[in-house]
Amino acid sequence: MENRCPSDRSPLSPPLPTTVHVNRTAQTITEWLPVSTTFIKFLIVGGVGYLVNQVVLFSLYDSPVSSFLPEKGTPFDVGPLTISDVKLLIASILAVEASIASNFFWHERWTFRDRVQRRSPPLRYLTFHFTSMGSPLISLTVVNVLSPVFGVWPYISNTVGICLAAVWNWTWNTRVIWPRKPSSEIAP
Predict the structure, then answer these.
(1) What is the per-residue pLDDT for 167?
(2) End-of-domain residue from the set 90, 114, 138
(3) Which residues pair with 81 in a beta bridge?
(4) 109 and 73 assigned to the same domain
(5) Whether residue 127 is found in the same domain as residue 176
(6) What is the structure's pLDDT at 4?
(7) What integer pLDDT is reported at residue 20 of this predicted model?
(8) How far is CA 151 from CA 53, 143, 156, 184, in A?
(9) pLDDT at position 14, please?
(10) Which of 46, 47, 53 is nearest to 98 (CA)?
């Protein structure tokens, strides 16, 4: 049998052994909770994306690997705006980009692999990337309104923001990027 990279896999090819185990875990969770397996997979992929984000952020901001970037605390002027730590800005942008790419890859290969697509993967990726930018905006807005205006503890308001952002992502992912095929189009 030919040895192939996971990125060479067709969305309809057999799953990898690790994926089979995680699929069984997701199925078990859906037996306990009244939610779909797809939604559990969506949450797992989101958790992986969070970990990817944190690892990249640490690697580019606090680890020795980041020596090619400006020093911590280096300011940068952009017109009337001063960014107080350009290294943090660069590291956080790259961390978000890495997590978006990771989430897209796993949603394509696992979460929504059974959904037939009409659009090309690059077009789906661009749409996914664009809609993914809404979730950080939602989280930032919620934290920066609930905490200073209403006195909500930042970790609680951050959790609320993340939950609202997950609803945003789920809606766009299931309605626009990987919609279900209408039952009228499914062959008997």
Answers:
(1) 92
(2) 114
(3) 78
(4) yes
(5) yes
(6) 39
(7) 65
(8) 28, 10, 10, 51
(9) 60
(10) 53
* Last residue in a domain, options 93, 114, 135: 114
pLDDT at residue number 44 = 94
Question: Facing residues of 82 across strands?
Answer: 77
| Contact (Cβ atoms closer than 8 angstroms) between residue 144 and residue 78 | no
**Distance of alpha carbon 50 from its chain centroid, rounded?**
7
Query: For position 7, what pLDDT does the model report?
Result: 43
Is there a single domain that holds both residue 107 and residue 21? Answer: yes
What is the rounded CA–CA span in Å between residue 153 and residue 148? 9
Q: So what's the pLDDT on residue 100?
A: 92
Residues (pLDDT < 70) of the chain are: 1-20, 26, 29-30, 32-34, 182-188
pLDDT for the residue 2:
40
- The token pair at 169 is 């992502």
> Hey, what are 7's tokens?
């990125």
Q: Are residues 139 and 68 in the same domain?
A: no
Amino acid at 96: V
